[in-house]
């Protein structure tokens, strides 16, 4: 009885600890979700090539000054607003005095109105400039960036070349955005992604103001690490958000990808990426894209006797192939499945009914379906077992045929495709391996190759059926081929020579029958002896 009471108390204590941790995490998350106020610039004189922030109250004009030390060049002024349009004017002090008593039309002609982010260019002269700002409709934060770079900020110029790649995720109905690192200050540039289902934003602070509202400046100083740019907590090396309150905002640090989930079928979405250069605090639009989300898995059409390949990473680990039985189909439909870089589950359906139950396929599988009927459609569903850990080279190759297998040009493989090393026969410059030959009496063409390296650095199931080889030709240390006729031997052995002492190698064996395709056995990790044995005379 005492033991039972102790167990219950321990369970209760464990539950309370977990509940406390959960509440603490939720509280921390809510505190970080809302951005801190911007660190408002407290000087009247603007710096060169550094972005600063100020706060404008509606209807109250604010002035800054800029001392130019260059001439015969160009100055650019970038104004980014957060919640409303801003009227602004940038001119030399001398010109301001010259037009002070001019008519109103002359002065109004030089006024600019910015909503979002805009950049204007001015001829540079040595002397004092004045920047005048006025919030027209509501209070707003404004970011100011005066650049002396020829042609304007290089970050904006390079961002025009960027494209956002969208990868749809069938799993959890999401998409992943990917982009290339900035060409300007890549090591100090961080990124934020913004998702909306109705509109785009001219600036990052406009998106954040739309989501959270704005907080007026406070008297206490705000550290740079607590500004609006870094408020978003990151889960791993890239942020994944499931919050469906638009806009969805995720800041991912220096990572160049972002995943958003739980999108709705057939709905249009707008995706934007904003970058911040840590060298000068300049935040600018980095790229944008839009998409009508379609989370359905579109089948890949199979032609009779012709193999088709699909990248599992691209399809988020789930692929569907469709095969239509041709005229005069014969007695059997044969489906050959070759996974590449991932163990998969496979099932076959006809008219929505499962006719081949889900099965696990490691590296080679042949499915036979009896009495196929003309024009009937079969759907072959392939699921990666570890969908969250797919390598970019992971794929699946499938061939469906009502012809004889000999015409399908794929050699039948033995029940096991693993290679075996005979370790007692190791030397400093060779290893001895063995494998089970392919079935049949015909002569088969085997190729043996080796390269230096560790097996974990190379996918052990890279796609041999796709290109007939796993390793690039330049990587081979040893490669040779030979024709071997099937005999009564149950195992073929081979001594792989000309290796270096004390080195690790990856060995590959491929097989090809006459007029057939190349298929690989599993890769094998071997290691030569560190020293050569002395041969006694």
Write the layout of secondary structure elements.
Blueprint: H1 2-33, E1 52-56, E2 62-68, E3 73-81, E4 86-92, H2 93-98, H3 104-108, E5 112-114, E6 117-124, E7 127-135, E8 140-147, H4 154-159, E9 165-169, E10 174-178, E11 189-196, H5 204-212, E12 240-241, E13 248-253, E14 257-260, E15 268-277, E16 282-292, E17 300-302, E18 308-311, E19 318-324, E20 332-340, E21 344-350, E22 353-361, E23 365-370, E24 377-384, E25 395-401, H6 405-408, E26 420-421, E27 431-435, E28 443-452, H7 464-467, E29 478-485, E30 492-496, E31 504-512, E32 518-520, E33 524-527
Parallel strand pairs: 12-14, 17-19
Antiparallel strand pairs: 1-8, 2-7, 3-6, 3-8, 4-5, 4-7, 9-10, 10-14, 11-13, 11-15, 15-16, 18-25, 19-24, 20-23, 20-25, 21-22, 21-24, 26-27, 27-30, 28-29, 28-31, 31-32, 31-33
Notes on the protein architecture:
- The chain has 537 residues and is mostly beta strands.
- It is built from seven helices and 33 strands.
- It has helices spanning 2-33, 93-98, 104-108, 154-159, 204-212, 405-408, 464-467; strands spanning 52-56, 62-68, 73-81, 86-92, 112-114, 117-124, 127-135, 140-147, 165-169, 174-178, 189-196, 240-241, 248-253, 257-260, 268-277, 282-292, 300-302, 308-311, 318-324, 332-340, 344-350, 353-361, 365-370, 377-384, 395-401, 420-421, 431-435, 443-452, 478-485, 492-496, 504-512, 518-520, 524-527.
- The strands form eight sheets. Strands 17-19-24-21-22 form a five-stranded mixed β-sheet, with no helix packed on it. Strands 28, 29, 31, 32 and 33 form a five-stranded antiparallel β-sheet that branches. The chain has a four-stranded antiparallel β-sheet with strand order 1-8-3-6, with no helix packed on it.
- A hairpin with a 4-residue loop joins strand 15 (268-277) and strand 16 (282-292).
- Mean pLDDT is 80; it is low at 20-33, 104-109, 219-242, 457-462 and 464-470.
